[in-house]
């Protein structure tokens, strides 16, 4: 049974044959994401009432999952923050760093003679959809190592099932969709989950130039604080309907800006979305306020928290010619310049079958 904070359509992929051990070594990567506008309207209890819309992009910060055959009767798991070597008949570990990997083994049926390792440049809890990227990468690696190649839609749904259905992590579905599909996407949501996945950069569209300009001006500032987005969301009070409409309006403006080739419209929509998120959750936006103070007067046109807030990353956008002063002001933080419009989950390497 799903509660108000979980997806209604998350589901595992049907496995056509019983699988217990991987057949080959496979390395998979999946991207993290940034949303430009509408974040939070993908939450089921919001989308059920008003519909939801999120416009954003997969970014070139990727999580890698490596699956390979291991000694029969044993399972080896490794992830940032923890690892375990256990007998396959032992109960699944419930360590916070390993629960996701254990759940991925459970839904795919690959649970004996397997090694699964997650590696990432940015650990989950950074506001960039890192846990979903890890889930999608792990699921694709396990299935590819067993001779199956699911579609992006199937991957996104199964990842949502793992995070919402198995682990009961509160949240919406945008993160696994960006991780599975990649690209710059205009997503719509209803009471049943994701209702539409529309690539923004289609052939002949005017969006490519806007995406390039966005990428040139974007900075991701790492606050160094990590938190579980589901915990942040569960502590949040019911959203103000006016805030939700502001978020939806901002997402529509960003989508319109891409369609019309207008960077100005996209930036204005991002500003509107940032203001609405700050109004909805002032406490979770404190790291954003600190960074906004540091860059005040240095030409930043957008400063907004990424993800659920409370830490993680803060997105700063300004024309590239203003970056020198901004980077000087941000020198005590780690600053990343992400690539936008990157591919979704993909197999990077495949070994011979055993």
Helix coverage percent: 25-40%
Number of separate domains: 2
Order of helices and strands: EHEEEHEHHHEEHEHHHHEEHEE
Radius of gyration: 20 Å
Q: In what range is the share of β-strand residues?
A: 15-25%
CATH topology category name of the largest domain: Ribosomal Protein S5, domain 2
- Which CATH-level-2 architecture of the largest domain? 2-Layer Sandwich
Walk me through this protein's architecture.
This is D,D-heptose 7-phosphate kinase. GO terms for molecular function: ATP binding; kinase activity. Residues 100-183 form the GHMP kinase N-terminal domain. The chain is an alpha+beta fold. It has two domains: 26-203 and 341-350, Ribosomal Protein S5, domain 2 (2-Layer Sandwich), CATH 3.30.230.10; 207-336, Alpha-Beta Plaits. It has helices at residues 44-50, 99-108, 130-144, 152-166, 174-181, 207-217, 229-234, 241-260, 263-280, 286-295, 323-329; strands at 26-37, 52-69, 74-79, 82-87, 114-120, 184-190, 193-199, 218-222, 302-305, 313-317, 334-336, 346-350. Strands 1, 2, 3, 4, 5, 6, 7 and 12 form an eight-stranded mixed β-sheet that branches. Strands 9-10-8-11 form a four-stranded antiparallel β-sheet. A hairpin with a 2-residue loop joins strand 6 (184-190) and strand 7 (193-199). Helix 3 (130-144) crosses helix 5.
């Amino acid at each position: 049974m799903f509660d108000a904070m979980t997806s209604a359509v998350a589901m595992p992929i049907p496995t056509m044959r019983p699988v217990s051990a991987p057949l080959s070594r496979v390395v998979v990567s999946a991207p993290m994401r940034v949303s430009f506008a509408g974040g939070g309207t993908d939450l089921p209890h919001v989308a059920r009432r008003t519909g939801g819309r999120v416009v954003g992009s997969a970014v070139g910060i990727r999580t890698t999952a490596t699956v390979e055959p291991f000694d029969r009767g044993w399972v080896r798991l490794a992830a940032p923050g923890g690892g375990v070597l256990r007998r396959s008949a032992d109960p699944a570990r419930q360590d916070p760093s390993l629960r996701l990997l254990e759940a991925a083994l459970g839904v795919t049926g690959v649970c004996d003679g397997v090694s699964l390792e997650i590696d990432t440049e940015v650990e989950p809890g950074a506001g960039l959809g890192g846990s979903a990227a890890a889930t999608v990468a792990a699921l694709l690696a396990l299935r590819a190592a067993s001779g199956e190649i699911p579609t992006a839609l199937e991957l996104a749904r199964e990842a949502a099932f793992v995070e919402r259905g198995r682990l009961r992590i509160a949240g919406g579905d945008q993160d696994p969709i960006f991780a599975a599909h990649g690209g710059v996407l205009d997503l719509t949501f209803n009471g049943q989950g994701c209702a539409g996945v529309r690539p923004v950069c289609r052939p002949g569209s005017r969006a490519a130039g806007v995406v390039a300009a966005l990428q040139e001006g974007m900075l991701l500032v790492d606050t160094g604080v990590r938190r579980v987005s589901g915990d942040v969301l569960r502590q949040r009070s019911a959203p103000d309907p006016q805030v939700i409409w502001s978020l939806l309006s901002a997402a529509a403006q960003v989508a319109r800006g891409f369609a019309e080739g207008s960077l100005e419209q996209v930036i204005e929509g991002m500003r509107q979305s940032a203001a609405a998120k700050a109004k909805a959750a002032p406490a979770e936006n404190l790291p954003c306020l600190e960074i906004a103070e540091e860059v005040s007067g240095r030409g930043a046109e957008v400063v907004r928290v990424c993800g659920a807030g409370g830490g993680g990353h803060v997105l700063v956008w300004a024309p590239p010619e203003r970056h020198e002063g901004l980077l000087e002001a941000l020198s005590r933080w780690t600053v990343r310049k992400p690539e936008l419009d990157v591919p979704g989950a993909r197999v990077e390497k495949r070994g011979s079958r055993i």
